[in-house]
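Minutes, project check-in

Agenda point 3 was the complex the collaborators sent over. CS summarized: two entities, 394 residues total, and the question is how they sit relative to each other. Sequences were read into the notes so everyone works from the same version.
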Amino acid sequence: MKILFHKKPLTDNPALMLVLVVQAILIMSCAGRDLKPYVHTDTDITLDQIDKIAVFPLQNLSTDKFAAKKIEGLLIMDFLARGINVIEPGEVMSALRQSNAQSIDAMTVADLQNIGNMINADAVIIGSVGTFAMNKGISVAYPEVSVHFIMIDIQSGSTVWSVWHTSGGPNFWTRHFGSEGATLDEIAREVVEDAVDTLY
Amino acid sequence: MNLIKTRILICLLFTSLLPLACRSSNPPTYHINEDVDFSFIKKVAVMPLENMTSDKSAGEIMRHLVISEMLASGLADVVVPGEVIHAVNDLGIKNISSLSRKQIISLGRALRVQALIMGSVQQYGHVRLTNVSAPEVTITLMMADTGTGDIIWSVTKTRGGASFMVSHFGAKSETISEAALATVREALETLSAY
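CS then shared the predicted structure for the full assembly.
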């Protein structure tokens, strides 16, 4: 303490200046909102009852025309890695074609139940990809991904899980020191993993 | 004496900067009908939001956020988005942005919900400031009682621009998705607080 506060002008005190600069950098690098996903779970239905899941085509609201397909793939991989049975995407598509559902966006709970029963799924996942892009700021480009997943129980038709999650954005180090940030794929994987973590 | 003066000046500078750095976002403007008992609302339907922005997906993105936040906050159960589109088509409703009292009641019966959430997205994009670009989101939400067709809650919330720390010190800024989430969350908090 004596070193920091001896009676000299501020600029003549290198230790104090160093502490102030480091503190300022730390504050700036840590600034920003840490937004955690919210989860809704129906207490009447336990997740142990759900053995087989079908991931339906997600609604693509992003500018990347393959974003929904990419997130679907990541979601299926994540479920499989956790030891959860996922119905083949080809079987889901085949059942969708056989059903009279007009479009994924306009599917009723009855439609979901019919298709779910056709493929013997305990639950289906529907949802959307809101953002999937490398956005450009004034001095830096950064990845940004946001997703919304809803799980519907086939037997009861009720929503058992819903999560909206986002990740990405430029951090202090990328913006000012050009350090390598996460790639779009890494952020996408992180978003899906964090979202599913809220379920299991 | 000079040293004391320097220290006082530094203290004054910091105290004048702190309120700028801690500037909070604008509080939402809202109306709530205090005569209504909101505990009777168990299930709601979120209608497609009117999109007044240049981003063609903004309305749907915000609608999904409202659905998720309604469920997550535990305020009410929400019908599957596809059910709403199906009911709108079945009832032959052409203009979702201006529903009549009769249409609100009919939709409530068809969807078996106690309330409809409608609204619009006025801003959804980035604004370019001098040395930074920052997200800006504005949303208006309304809740209509499907028993009477009356509007019982409405809120307008805007969020955007760069904070003091972002514009002057390059701190981590919000992404558009984070700003959108915060906007919806703060808008719905006016309902959950009641």
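Noted in discussion: Confidence is low (pLDDT under 50) at residues 29-35 of chain A.
Follow-up: revisit at the next meeting once the mutant set is ready.
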